[in-house]
Amino acid sequence: MKLYIGNLPWSVDDVKLKELFSSYGDVTEANVITDKFTRRSKGFGFVTFATDKSAQKAISEMDGKEVEGRALKVSKARPMREE
Q1: Domains contained in the chain, CATH given
Q2: Which terminus of the chain is more solvent-facing, meaning fewer CB atoms within 10 Å of its CB: N or C?
Q3: CA 41, CA 36: separation in Å to the nearest integer?
């Protein structure tokens, strides 16, 4: 299951994002979305868990948790919309 992680501190990169969520289960992928020109974080990312159970636990425990003074927004990722 893929999760959306919003309101990330600017200092969080892919490695730190994986570290934040790995205590809840096997993280198969962790990506912070960056601006393609400046390479700066856009403040959100995605974490993919091997099992839905791990993902649900991460949602319940990490949604609203403060990391470096910012309350994370954690939810199940929705498919990208075609514009």
Answers
A1: 2-68 (3.30.70.330)
A2: C
A3: 10
